[in-house]
Amino acid sequence: MMSSRTLRRRFPRPRDLAPLLTFKKFDTNARRRRLAKAFTIADLRTIAKRRTPQGAFDYADGAADQELSLARARQAFLDIEFHPAILRDVSQVDTSVRILGAPSSLPFGIAPTGFTRMMHAEGEQAGASAAGAAGIPFSLSTVGTTTPEQVAIANPRGRNWFQLYMQKDRDRSMTLVSRAADVGFDTLLVTVDVPVAGARLRDNRNGFTIPPTLTPATVLNAIPRTEWWWNFLTTEPLRFASLTDWDGTIAELLDTLFDPTVTFDDLAWIRDEWPGKVVVKGIQTLDDAKRVVDVGVDGIVLSNHGGRQLDRAPIPFHLLPVVKRELGQRTEIIVDTGIMSGADIVAALAMGADFTLVGRAYLYGLMAGGREGVDRAIDILTGEIVRTMKLLGVASISELNTQHVTQLRRLVPRGDV
Ligand SMILES: Cc1cc2nc3c(=O)[nH]c(=O)nc-3n(C[C@H](O)[C@H](O)[C@H](O)COP(=O)(O)O)c2cc1C
């Protein structure tokens, strides 16, 4: 070992110091500066939390009851082990897929989320335009805060999907659906896991209503979040773009509007009414997956609604192998809930998913910085997908298979999956 006595020292010379003193060019755009510091979706969440009123942030971030479904779904992704193949040429990686009859440049799309303009004034327009720019599908919720027509303008060349909650008033549901079809939405996602609203305890505890009400607590919480309030007060009032106005809690709205009597027959009827692809969102058992495929839908979303409905529901990622084995030839399989990184997406594809949807990962970006925040979220996920694929020795999505992933045992269900 060389002792310090044997080191030959000299005085630092200005010429040697100069290259070490590089100052980054100051970006005058505060939003870009802020977003440049986010390297993961979790970083975006931290920024989002700082900038969004607690009621709106918790509405997006929270889940039902004890939030176990969401925590478990995320844990399941964390508990995977990847098995890389070495010495493959991964100089070029192709992340594109075909899903529901058309291409997507990345293996994920933006999930439908309600009340999105409450998270950030740019709302669905930010999501739809960012999705269009990235070449991925955007989904608009029945309880969206932007009309199908406005979404089509924001994403004129890209793919838009419409999410349907069957309402008690069937005519109103179908009017909405035909408006989406008329402006070129190519896929209908029929959400089937909301016969009643889940128990969103954070919303109850925050006394959260739509639109937000001003109480001493919300005013205090608003002080460091002036941009949100400024946007909120100086843009179109928050109202449902596709429904009549509402003045109450979200749970009350869902329970009043949505029809708990919907059955498989209604699904067959919707299938015949919609000109494009039909996908059922919220499948949680193999039996139900088989039944909806028998009705003749084009795809299924294995989902527990981001843990926002039945707490302790099955982990959608865990359903993949058995659903793939039984139905992979007959339907397209999409999975969501708990995706927080591109590696999660790669794992889902390796386990048998054809595609994935991201909800909160997109909303954290939106809350952190509007359109640019959504771009950042998509960039982060893309970088992670590409890097994970290269490290796995995989150059295209179709090469991914179950050999690349093992589920470590902690949360694996008993019995054969
Ligand atoms: C704030 C929020 C609102 C949502 N609103 C809807 C909705 O209106 N319709 C729907 O089918 N799913 C809705 N979802 C569920 C998402 O479509 C998706 O299933 C879920 O977010 C996936 O989980 P992730 O957030 O962990 O990615 C919502 C999710 C969130 C977080």
Describe this structure in words.
The mean pLDDT is 92. β10 (332-335), α17 (342-350) and β11 form a beta-alpha-beta unit. The radius of gyration is 23 Å and the shape is globular. α2 (30-36) crosses α18 (360-392) and α15 (286-295) packs across α16 (316-327). The protein has one domain (34-405): Alpha-Beta Barrel (TIM Barrel). The strands form 3 sheets. An 8-stranded parallel sheet has the order 4-11-10-9-8-7-6-5. It has a two-stranded antiparallel sheet with strand order 1-12. The protein has a two-stranded antiparallel sheet with strand order 2-3. The protein is α/β, with parallel strands linked by helices. It has 18 helices and 12 strands. Helix content is 43%, strand content 11%. It has helices spanning 14-17, 30-36, 41-51, 54-61, 68-78, 116-119, 123-134, 148-154, 170-182, 201-206, 216-222, 226-234, 250-257, 264-273, 286-295, 316-327, 342-350, 360-392; strands at residues 80-82, 97-99, 102-104, 108-110, 138-140, 160-164, 187-191, 277-283, 299-302, 332-335, 355-358, 405-407. Bound molecules: flavin mononucleotide. The site of flavin mononucleotide (FMN) has 25 residues, from α4, β11 and α18.
